């Protein structure tokens, strides 16, 4: 396994999380699950030498290692809070796009369409609606046709389009929060799947110390206004709790206890992101 990091959050990783597996439903032969996960083979984005695999690929590997109950991971429908806190909206958008990947894995067309509309609503709230209108419409259209491979591509594209639009509007720091929200939601889903049927191969997907360092550094380099946001501060503290759990894992082995701890931390943060209260940024 390559020494460089790999994860995808929904960035899930993500990643979260998280996919080729469901997309290959039409294939008549089932490939033998890999004996070891070679994360270095994933399609990926590279940011400051940190390799961030696309979310769908992480989910694809999980599918090859078993048959996750993605519908259970999707959970009940969520009503997102109305808020003027742009940091919270950006984080929310990341979690919603990550939900999109989970809904695709569950092959739940109605939830996929609902999530596509939510992406559009949240994008509008941070002034990047124009960048995702066509993606949102395409997600809904392709979900109706149950073209899951195409829907995955649209969610991947939506994330990239939103980030690019934010950078063009000089809101690059909010774009980082979108990726961070996706990573938290993706990691929550990933740890939930891993702990249901633990194996070293599955758990190794959580070994992502360089990505954790990257997000820690990004938060520390945010503007004073964003760093002072209560929600962002809580997430900074959460990453501070996760970092030693991952970095202290010997020989990349992530224990069941570590999986549980990381799951509880990320699940709590996702609930905070989706809470009705937030400090304005």
- Sheet of most strands: 2 strands, antiparallel
Q: Shape from CA axes?
A: globular
| Strand elements, count | 2
- Give the helix tally: 13
Count structural domains.
1
- Name the beta content range: under 5%
Strand order of the largest sheet: 1-2
Question: What ranges have pLDDT less than 50 throughout 5 or more consecutive residues?
Answer: 1-53
Order of helices and strands: HEEHHHHHHHHHHHH
SS content category: mainly alpha
Helix content: 55-70%
Key terms:
281 residues, 13 helices, disordered N terminus, two-stranded antiparallel ribbon, single chain, 3% strand, globular, mainly alpha
Can you give a write-up of this model?
- This protein has 13 helices and two strands; from the N terminus they run αββαααααααααααα.
- The chain has one domain (about 45-275).
- A hairpin with a 2-residue loop joins strand 1 (about 45) and strand 2 (about 50-55).
- The protein is globular and about 45 Å long.
- The protein has about 280 residues and is an all-alpha fold.
Briefly summarize what is shown.
With 281 residues, this protein is mainly α.
What is the topological layout?
Blueprint: H1 20-23, E1 44-47, E2 50-53, H2 55-64, H3 70-74, H4 86-105, H5 109-125, H6 129-144, H7 148-168, H8 172-196, H9 200-203, H10 209-220, H11 224-227, H12 230-247, H13 256-273
Antiparallel strand pairs: 1-2
Helix pairs in contact: 4-5, 4-7, 4-8, 5-6, 6-7, 7-8, 8-13, 10-12, 12-13
């Amino acid at each position: 396994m390559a020494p460089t990091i790999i994860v995808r959050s929904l960035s899930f990783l993500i990643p979260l999380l998280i996919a080729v597996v469901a997309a290959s439903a039409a294939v008549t032969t089932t490939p033998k699950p890999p004996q070891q996960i070679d994360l270095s083979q994933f399609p990926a984005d590279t940011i400051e030498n940190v390799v961030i695999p696309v979310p769908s690929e992480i989910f694809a590997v999980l599918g090859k290692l078993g048959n996750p109950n993605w519908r259970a991971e999707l959970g009940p429908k969520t009503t997102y809070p109305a808020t003027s806190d742009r940091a919270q909206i950006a984080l929310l958008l990341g979690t919603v796009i990550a939900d999109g990947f989970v809904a695709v894995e569950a092959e739940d067309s109605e939830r996929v369409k609902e999530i596509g509309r939510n992406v559009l609503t949240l994008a509008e709230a941070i002034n990047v609606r124009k960048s995702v209108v066509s993606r949102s419409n395409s997600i809904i259209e392709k979900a109706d046709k149950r073209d899951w491979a195409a829907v995955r591509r649209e969610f991947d594209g939506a994330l990239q389009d939103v980030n690019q639009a934010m950078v063009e509007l000089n809101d690059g720091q909010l774009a980082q929060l979108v990726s961070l929200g996706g990573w938290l939601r993706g990691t929550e889903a990933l740890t939930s799947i891993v702990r249901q049927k633990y194996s070293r191969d599955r758990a190794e997907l959580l070994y992502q110390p360089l990505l954790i360092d990257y997000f820690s550094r990004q938060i520390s380099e945010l503007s004073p206004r964003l760093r002072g946001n209560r929600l962002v501060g809580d997430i900074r503290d959460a990453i501070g709790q996760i970092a030693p759990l991952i970095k202290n894992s010997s020989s990349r082995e992530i224990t069941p206890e570590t999986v549980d701890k990381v799951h509880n931390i990320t699940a709590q943060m996702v609930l905070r992101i989706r809470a009705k209260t937030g400090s304005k940024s």
